[in-house]
């Protein structure tokens, strides 16, 4: 059975998890205290002892102590040597086992993607894989559906610009608490291979399935299991003696315990598929030092060469950029937290799995590599310890030289940027861009309201100094935007659709309906009407909710309910059930075309809110609600998630009309109101 906390962390919330609680960082190797700031350091990294003092001070800062991380490892290499390899806190809180950089294993999560990309480029060097080749050539009898006129190439896989309709595992598809339930890599690809629905190369969307397919292609062209390939062609040559794509009985005892909310330890889990190219590697700090040394030394370490120097440079060169000054991705590497680069060349890769957080940064021109990992999921805010360390390191050793000059534009010129921008990966992340009364471009999203300072025709800085960049379409119109609301995806400017014929500007639900219409969540009828007063079915309501979240449906060979087979929204119902948003009936049916009641809709939304960390609230509700829906209805009222159909009486009490069928306009109001929390 799936753990609801894992489903929440790994599927519903790729960007934000609310209300996480932590316990103190347990200082096994340094007593926790608030330390004075380290003395000023001349630009550049010059003294290993000073570096260790800087690192110790960082982990003793109140801001980090309050995050209450159980244990961490920090490794820094420079000029071919390991300058720092140190553990902080505990790999196992209960047994007080300290983090040991030599022996403690951490799940690397998505840093695995760098190793996978290296394996692809090894085959490119040998002529077995061509970057510009249609990937169908390497898939054997597995059929890839491509709904565009542009071939999907290996280069598109490496740059996460595939145009796939699904870039992540389906709910319940990644984490398996029973290892026997995990699929082989080939079976996983056969079952879950997504379709290409957007022109490949058009846009950057962080893509786990792209990296999965890279590993499968290497397995196909080499004729050996992917785990064996990595062992023979990467881990052994580099002397990474504790690193593996598999967690086995031999190395399980050295794996750091995973912790989540309130430092609750997680039971051991497996990653699906068993040999997971996008996130399966476990490694130690010292082994990661060897990997970084090889990457910084032209692909060579202690006489072993994993790639040619020119191939390493190619991998670390930006390949997809929304703006020349704001790169996103190379081959396996990504470019994040641009505001902290301080004029330096920086490439990196981060990783997250339940109970594990990691990041690797490389400064190739300075010959410096940094690896930080800890055994806790940290998604309580948008600034985690990995980002904080990187920014502190850069500001201390490579401070910024100055601010770029303004690029003045008149308010009328800025209006071309106005509109709604919807994140391509996380559908509920929406940014509204507009010119304020002061003539300055402003962006509003889940991070709040930010005034934007223009420094280039298509580039702005927000109030934190982070870039907000725009990209034009083929006709010169503004098409995409990038901001720190989601650092691993672009947002698409949503066109303003023609209004529905039966929803004019004065309609009481116009604002709700038109918003969802512009985000392409709701569609009208062939005659241009919306039928706002008509009831909405259970299946259609589920489809709207999933579309708002950005969760695509998928057709399972073993559907949850008997009566959804062949239904046009069967995939959405399957995904919603996997995500613990809906259940069926005792008979094993779902009744997808049955009209949904207001209390049934409330239960679905409250299940979602609870997974997002919303706390239960009380409110006066006067109508008769079934016991199984009472908490959900009360929270709909408490959070004011309704439209004009609900009017509090003189005492503030509300008749939610729980058992009445929900109409399409009321469903639009409900989804609109919950979206305003983001």
From TrEMBL:
Domain spans labelled SLH: 496-559, 561-619
Signal peptide annotation: 1-30
The entry's keywords: Signal
Annotated coiled-coil segments of the chain: none
A family per Pfam: SLH
Record-given protein name: Penicillin-binding protein, beta-lactamase class C
UniProt organism field: Thermobacillus composti (strain DSM 18247 / JCM 13945 / KWC4)
